[in-house]
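REQUEST ID: PR-0412
SUBMITTED BY: lab tech R.K.
PRIORITY: routine
TASK: structure prediction, single protein chain
INPUT:
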Amino acid sequence: MDRREALKASSLILGYTLTAGTAAALLNGCKAETKSDWTPKTLSQENVDLVAEICESILPKTETPGAKDALCHRYIDEMLTHFYSKEEQDYYMQALDVFNTKSMAKYSKAFVALNPGERENFLGILAAEAKDYKDESGKKPHIFSKIKEATISGYFTSEVGAKGGLCSFLPVPGPYQGCIDYSTIGKGYVIS
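STATUS: complete
OUTPUT:
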């Protein structure tokens, strides 16, 4: 199973495993800012660059748009700004240091300087670490889990993700087609 197929499968599971901040962002229609003169509200510019590269490594551009095309890094900044408490924001920012600290220890360079193969290997290590991670309070999930969750929710709720990503886009209202042969469409529908 390739990464894109794994993300398709995990998106189905993600519906009932969302953390409170991400669930609130989704339910309240959080969207990435699309203005060309955008500046981050919560993350520093350095952290925005880091988050953009992490998101793109999780969901890279192939024949379909990637996380950067869907502005997932901006979505994460919006989500942190409007749907996370100050304590949760602080934890998120401190936890981002994990990417550079561990990357420096393993590769002697920051995460953004890693090549695609190194990034994939490194994220695999963090994914395994996140799987075994236990927080006594239950309030501080592993940062890789948080970013992956936000990347997937940001991607699937973006126009880019809906139109060119993993599904066909059908604006509503649209014609009712009660029985469609799957082979004629090739993808599932997302109704907005």
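NOTES: The chain has nine helices and two strands.
REVIEWED BY: pending
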